[in-house]
Batch of 2 targets.
Target 1
Amino acid sequence: MNKKIGILGCGWLGLPLAKSLIHEEHTVFGTTTSESKIEILQKANIVPFTIGLTEKGIEGQIDNFLAALDLLIINVPPKLRSAPQESFIKKMFHLYDKIKKTPLSRIIFISSTSVYGNIDGLITEDSPTRPNTESGRQLLAAENIFLNDGDLNSTIIRFGGLIGPSRHPVTHLAGKTDLSNGNDPVNLIHLNDCIGIITMAINGNWENKVINGVYPLHPTKETYYTTEAIKRGLLPPVYTKNLDKIGNKSIESKYLNVKIYPYNTSIVS
């Protein structure tokens, strides 16, 4: 069934997601913060809007954007590293207020496994959340804005480390030495699987649920990044220290497993 789907944030994940949904014959309304990217959205057959979230309010035609939608995908990272003084929570409250003034009741909120913090061992959706970064704390608070509203049908998807075209941590680790905790497991997810999981959420009955989006195979950092560096012709990173610390976690999902991962892309880009 064709749906009118809004993607707030058509960037590295949002743009290919939009193209995939259009291929599935949905109508996609997408946003960018830059006028220069409007043409990119138009060429992809996305109905484009220039919209910016700020602490003081929302810039752009947010009312027109929300009015037509059956479902909204909120794909806006906190970006607190580049703007640590800004409040992501305030931005989400402004968005929530706008949503509540429309008939829209179906939300998919893209979050991060950073909300779990440095918990040790196996992590599932039932595990406690103990974020140890400001970004993680604000993401968790933003999740709850939508989950705590019983009138909204909200799905929270917590993705692990994102990898895919032009994005892989090994490019930053290659050639580095004296790295620590090489025995820790990796918790990554490929772009293709992100798109597949979001598509499953759109078509499924995941009302008011939290879903962990992490590929369920967890090689050690040393094994994985050494292999990935060699594949790319890069110098492998060298791990020499294993610190006695909490945070040696493997993140898995009650709802997803190897057999049903949409593209079975694994964590190989």
Note: The helical segments are 14-23, 38-43, 62-67, 88-99, 134-147, 170-173, 191-203, 221-231.
Target 2
Amino acid sequence: MTQGAIPNHVAIVMDGNGRWATRRYMPRVAGHKKGMDALRACLRHCGERGIKVLTVFAFSSENWNRPAEEVSGLMELLALALAREVPQLKTEGVRVHFVGDRDALSDKVRAGLVQAEADTAGNSRLVFNVCFNYGGRWDIAQAAARLAAKGEAITERSLDAALALAHVAAPDLIIRTGGERRLSNFLLWQAAYSELYFSDKLWPEFDDAALDEALADYAARERRFGLTSEQIAPAADRKAA
């Protein structure tokens, strides 16, 4: 795989933690804990491959409807991750952003998110966006509300700049694990021209080799952004020259 084929921004719907645990007669929360291990490895591998932005769907705005025990367990995992993982991420040059509606989170968790972002603000090796209590529709609605409150015209450009992920370019590649073939309210605006890749592997099973398969699939695609292949070819030839 050539360096030029590496996507700048990869986004992942980490699906299948609960099913991974259920198939092993374990509590669903155990699957989420195993998923944390997979995420840690994925972050490392993305850095090694030269990916500059990784965005993950950690908790959707619809996930509040899951069993209370599972939701509570996810909140505990978030608090644990803030305590254990952020210092290591800081050392590794990873900048952390938490993206989503924080109003429903506890004061302690909100303070932890702010501290994690502050602690890693000076890093630039890899931007790590954690979408927590996030939804694509929420993102578009909050952006429009912010513009309306300031009396600004709502255009594609202004809306794009008001979105929660305006600090990074749109994802080049969106991966979903777990065998499902949908976005599930993830990055609806930003996904307009993203390449989509679906894996049947459950998230805890999505290892370095699986990520490399997704990257190889991406490298074989032709991204046209509304143009034709003939229009792209001359531009690519000029770049190569």
Note: The CA atoms of residues 38 and 204 lie 5 Å apart.
